[in-house]
Amino acid sequence: MLVLMSQGDTSESQLDHDADHLPEGDERYLLRNKRQIRGLLRQLRDQRAVVTMHVAGRDMAVPTAVLDVDEDDDCLILDGSHNETSNRAIEDAKYLLCYAQLERVNVRFRLEKAVRIERDVHVAFHADLPEAMYHMQRRESYRLETPITDSPVCTIRQDEAQGGNLNLQLRVIDISSGGLAVSLTAGMPLLEPQRTYRDCTLQLPDAAPIALPLTVCSQHKQTLPNGSEGFRVGMQFSDLPRGADESIQRYIFRVDRQRNARKSGVF
């Protein structure tokens, strides 16, 4: 039986927005296959992961755990709280927003209704399987800050027919399997949010250039090390060509390995 978690200042409406309206590109991590959903829930059960339930309409967070996953009835059993007020709030809620981690990878899902039951003389809750689960894979979520002396270079081009001449050669400041970020300095033209720039090239050190489309996902003002202002632009890989993912992973692994070796004094 789990204890009540301290209530935070996160509003229910914001939590609802986070769960139901994922950021641009996050559809890649939304699982709808029931077999995969059952598998993730079983992992939460087997690892005894703490699942934080946010009660709809209440500024209340209650820790729970997955006790069982019933494949025949497509349902799961969640632990109740020793606090009766929390149990009543869960029972009365129209829906519950659930957050957990599996090996430091975020998992979240929504339960439409939880029915109070008794299990081994303790309060528990029965709920239908979620229709979908958000699960960001570890390799996608790991983002490498690139070294200044060994950085990839991203070239973004656009001609008049595509909306105006553009030919930017930018240092990649961080990179993952899912995308990259570049830095725009003062005087450079800003990129259009949510636009896909189709004529781009990613040049990794010691590798062949990769031609690919890039979609602008975010653009934030930042202060550069020299004190001037610029913009950090996050871009998503829209359609990587064959072999590109492996090349990016090799670069990330090599830089990471070299950094770890320096920290351990190997060189």
UniProtKB/TrEMBL annotation:
Residues 1-22 are annotated as: Disordered. Gene3D superfamilies: Electron Transport, Fmn-binding Protein, Chain A, predicted glycosyltransferase like domains. It is found in: Bacterial flagellum basal body. Residues 137-254 form the PilZ domain. Keywords: Bacterial flagellum, c-di-GMP, Nucleotide-binding. GO terms for molecular function: cyclic-di-GMP binding. Monomer. Interacts with the flagellar basal bodies. This is Flagellar brake protein YcgR. It comes from Xanthomonas melonis.
